[in-house]
């Protein structure tokens, strides 16, 4: 593939899509036009429509395990655990790699089964008002997925 073609494909990568770990766990993987893995997930909510194709995602969860020596953190959302790698080399804002913190992570999907694994691009502490944020997260995900083409 020519360099110009490759840069167009990279620029056309969609923004992060809000998903739950359970959706990734049940995803189907395929090779995209860029030669990189993409994942087909079922939409949440009524009138589920066509599947969403994702490679970059936005997820939120509670920190359950930090493995600094392995550059890894394990998070838990309402549908299960997921692993985030590369956490020692990303912008984090307030310290968020602490057990019990509620955080968001944007990252590239590395694998989806048996447990989703993301390579982190960004993380942020959402612990302020975390009770409300946790309760609303599934509804945010569902609402967004209903309106995406």
In short, what is this structure?
The chain has 149 residues and is an alpha+beta fold.
Q: Descriptors for this entry?
A:
single chain; 149 residues; alpha+beta; three-stranded antiparallel beta sheet; globular; disordered N terminus
Global outline = globular
Outline the biggest β-sheet: 5 strands, mixed, barrel
Q: Could you spell the SSE succession in H and E letters?
A: HEHEEEEEEEEH
Low-confidence stretches: 1-11
Count of DSSP H/I helices: 3
* Helicity, as a percent range: 10-25%
Rg to the nearest angstrom? Answer: 15 Å
**Can you list the strand order of the major beta sheet?**
5-6-7-9-8
* Distance linking N and C termini: 28 Å
Measured by DSSP, the beta-strand proportion falls in 35-45%
Number of strands: 9
Helical/strand content category:
alpha+beta
How would you describe the overall organization of this protein?
It is a single chain. This protein is α+β, with helices and mostly antiparallel strands and 149 residues long. 21% of the residues lie in helices and 38% in strands. The chain contains three helices and nine strands. A hairpin with a 5-residue loop joins strand 8 and strand 9. The N terminus is likely disordered.
Write the layout of secondary structure elements.
Elements: H1 3-11, E1 17-18, H2 21-25, E2 28-31, E3 37-41, E4 52-54, E5 56-67, E6 72-77, E7 80-85, E8 102-111, E9 117-125, H3 130-147
Parallel strand pairs: 1-5, 7-9
Antiparallel strand pairs: 2-3, 3-4, 5-6, 5-8, 6-7, 8-9
